[in-house]
């Protein structure tokens, strides 16, 4: 992926994309504001959510060990993964050990983060997305562009065309009389997925939360496809970021009030699925939980940035962001787009290694709307400013146009003689820059006023500091 400015420029030229995004984010914003206004203690809930997350992160090592103990006691196998490659190897090994050549997946951003589908494909294992929006993205050979609604950049006509073009190659084809009516599109997806649910022996999930005291994993969703994944297959592998842990069920109660209102604008999720290890004769009889780091301890070590690990993936910050609404998620080049992605990706990967990642902290107007919408009060604007400083620090000492310009300015301003010479040469230099196109990247977005006919120093000398003869 190119750096954000280049990718955003391409997205801004797509009028259909901008129309799709404006309609979708505007609808979700309005729904969220309505249901949030019904809660008298909404700010207290936000403060409680932030406090629970911060306290959990301060004692994360203890809570993770408690979670592991509880999961193991209930028949689950716990794996620890340092990075994406290790997590993918673990999931692939479980599939191979059980002679599985296809898996169904409940929507999981963390498996997209680690590139699990692609890793399984290299091992001969097909991974089928079952969330409707994820299915659209997969069949369209596309990338997700939103945390909650991965296909937000598509309209109904585009989805119909994708189903007609691609469903047959992946399983049951689309009906011959398919229309772009939402109910008909959902029915086509249901029929297509049903045969996969009934056939698959293994499922892969993420988790919205993991309750340490009981070893319970939680997935919230709107369609019920996730519940099919969590109950029908005989093998279940859940890949869970280590920041998803909450200590107790009482803590979970707070987030189950915050999440649905902030994400889908609903008072509660249509489907909230919980599972705790293995229950003989009911549901998956082989349960694996992969606890993933993949840069999270790096983020935890950042005194200001660690609050990004409070994120409950609600997408409220995306839906209010003026930048995201105009560029969409693909411009961010990551499974985590929008304001939260602009801080989370640099925190997980570090600054100075990748130009695309280094560009993300600048993908913001710093208007603060994201902080106001965040249900766990992540101060995204402050972290963005801090990450910008880290990007600058990471590039110190490397040759750059900005660095050369600043060194030239420092040398010029060091003595009055050099400054005076620069003032005389400025008009000539600006004319040459315009003719050669040197300053185009600056002047294309900013007004560059013409230099004054007379410099301040010359005026001072000519007027003796502004005094006329009578004053003298």
From TrEMBL:
InterPro entries: 4Fe4S_Fe-S-bd (IPR017896), 4Fe4S_Fe_S_CS (IPR017900), FTHF_cligase-like_sf (IPR024185), Helical_ferredxn (IPR009051), LUD_dom (IPR003741), LutB/LldF (IPR004452), NagB/RpiA_transferase-like (IPR037171)
Keyword tRNA processing set for record: no
Protein name: Lactate utilization protein
Domain (LUD): residue spans on this chain: 68-291
Organism lineage: Bacteria, Bacillati, Actinomycetota, Actinomycetes, Propionibacteriales
SUPFAM superfamilies listed in its UniProt record: 4Fe-4S ferredoxins (SSF54862), NagB/RpiA/CoA transferase-like (SSF100950)
The entry's keywords: 4Fe-4S, Electron transport, Iron, Iron-sulfur, Metal-binding, Repeat, Transport
Tagged with keyword Repeat: yes
Highest rank taxon of the organism: Bacteria
Gene3D superfamilies to which the protein is assigned, alphabetical: Alpha-helical ferredoxin, NagB/RpiA/CoA transferase-like
GO-annotated biological processes: lactate metabolic process
